[in-house]
Design brief:
With 500 residues, this protein is of the alpha/beta class. The protein has 12 helices and 28 strands. The N and C termini lie far apart (62 Å).
Length: 500
């Protein structure tokens, strides 16, 4: 029996093929990576990746695991692409204190690191940011093709967000991002060489890694990589480089809209072709503000780290508030264990070619059995409306019971976010001074609103949004909500817990 084409070891199976390989973009002078006044063409990028890959292979044995961590997104991008070109395996991690990175390294057998030296102080062998940025001006050949690999060989590791628990390691194959690009980046977004993308989230978040690095490069377009992810910096880069695609989330979209109003920079946002939102449910108020003020309808989409990118999304011209659209062609989903059908509500599972090949378990990173054809349980709950579109209800491990009644925080928060003057909110289980169950609602208010009226409206709407037995609420005004490095609200893991 002949071997499957997928099992052939070939450089064309490599994730970098078509980006910096022998079939790279037709015009080598096309901008690939952009930051402030710094432009790396595809020719520059190909040489820097080759130079970086050679340096990595000189310092580390084949198969070594290397941790990549930096706030500077250009450092992350160049370090990751060079590590992919090498014989080593990169682990992409959110920047955090040095001790935290050292713990990750110890758990997963990491032998070296690439990135900012201040973050990697506890590592013995580091390729620091100055070396990484120096690769940009390399004179190495640009026609060198990537190593020959199997399409389902491990390419790199990422980590789940961990907003409701400990982050899990996820191992992606070379085929994963390319399959996700064909399905979402090309199939839904129709990215092309004229597109310039920018993200408010860092590249360790696979949503940004796909939409703001791999997808635009696979399309022959450009990715904008700000020196930091502060929103004024991102907004400035949108203007400077005339971005066409903004990869973001609800909180950042709300903040960018307010910032643009104050700074008089709305014109740059009106020129965007696509605005993506993921990570948390997109409030109708944010959707409407972008549509009415800037002329785009944000594309609220849903994916997970295990599948690398989004598998539920509307088409750009069919986006509407409160809807995740339909299944992205190339993926299959189930709801409550069954085939999707209008009116169905339940746990969401998905399968497709982009699925990761291994996940962290009790005994390390366990390889998944037939990852392409087995179902991935996402941990999300959804509902399908009469038109066949999906609505997000929340995480299964985030819902909780009060006096025997389920409360789904995401549903309540979606309603509260549509009230005037509410910038952010968070719904949690609570008890009063007598130990009687109730719901706690923390809200962040717009500075210009009438605080008394806004809090009164929150109390009324929260009671209306909850089951009758669970309507006792405590309203608390907060300065801000705690967020992860990826911009997601940090929630306690509840696993359908009860407050009695």
């Amino acid at each position: 029996m002949s071997a499957s084409p997928r099992r052939l070891r070939d450089p064309r199976n490599h994730l970098l093929w078509g980006i910096v390989g022998s079939e790279s973009v037709a015009d080598a002078n096309t901008p690939a990576l952009l930051r402030s006044a710094d432009t790396l063409t595809y020719a520059h990028l190909a040489r820097s990746v080759v130079q970086g890959g050679l340096e990595i292979d000189e310092r580390f044995a084949p198969g070594s695991r290397l941790l990549i961590a930096a706030y500077d997104q250009m450092v992350v991008a160049l370090g990751l692409l060079a590590a992919l070109r090498s014989r080593c395996v990169p682990l992409l991690v959110d920047p955090q204190p040095a001790a935290g990175l050292a713990r990750v390294a110890a758990r997963w057998g990491v032998v070296g690191a690439i990135g900012e030296s201040a973050l990697l102080a506890e590592f013995d062998d580091v390729i620091d940011e100055s070396a990484v940025l120096g690769w940009r001006w390399s004179s190495a050949p640009s026609s060198d093709e990537p190593p020959a690999v199997h399409a389902d060989d491990a390419a790199f590791w990422t980590f789940t967000s961990g907003t409701t628990g400990e982050p899990r390691a996820v191992v992606h194959a070379h085929r994963g991002p390319r399959a996700a690009y064909e399905a979402f980046g090309k199939g839904i977004l129709a990215l092309e060489a004229a597109d310039r993308t920018v993200s408010t989230a860092g590249l360790p978040f696979v949503y940004a890694l796909g939409n703001n690095l791999f997808f635009p490069l696979l399309a022959g377009g450009s990715t904008i990589l700000p020196a930091d992810l502060l929103l004024p910096t991102v907004l400035g880069e949108i203007r400077r480089h005339e971005a066409t695609t903004l990869v973001s989330g609800p909180w950042s979209l709300e903040a960018i809209a307010r910032l643009a109003d104050r700074a008089g920079r709305g014109d740059a946002l009106r020129d965007l072709r696509l605005v993506l939102s993921a990570g948390e449910p997109l409030a109708e108020s944010v959707f409407t503000r972008w549509r009415d003020t800037f002329g785009q309808t944000p594309i609220d989409n849903l994916g997970c780290t295990e599948m690398f990118n989004s598998f539920l999304s509307p088409w750009p011209d069919d986006a509407r508030p409160g809807s995740l659209g339909r299944v992205v062609p190339g993926f299959e989903v189930r709801v409550g264990g069954g085939e999707p059908a209008p009116g169905l509500r339940g746990a969401l599972s998905v399968r497709g070619e982009s699925r990761a090949i291994a996940m962290s378990g009790a005994h390390g990173a366990d390889r998944l059995e037939s990852p392409e054809v087995s179902w991935c349980e996402t941990g999300d709950e959804v509902e399908i409306d009469a038109s066949g579109s999906f609505t997000y209800l929340g995480r299964l491990d985030d819902r909780f019971k009060v006096r025997g009644q389920f409360v789904r925080p995401a549903e309540v928060e979606r309603r509260l976010r549509n009230l005037e003057g509410i910038v952010e909110c968070l719904v949690r289980p609570d008890v009063d001074e007598r130990g009687v169950a109730r719901i706690s609602v923390g809200v962040v208010l717009d500075e210009s609103c009438d605080a008394v009226e806004a809090l009164r409206a929150v109390a009324t709407e929260a009671r209306a949004a909850c089951p009758a037995a669970a309507r006792s609420t405590r309203i608390e005004r907060l300065e801000k909500l705690e967020r992860s490095p990826r911009g997601k609200v940090v929630r306690e893991r509840r696993a359908a817990s009860s407050v009695r």
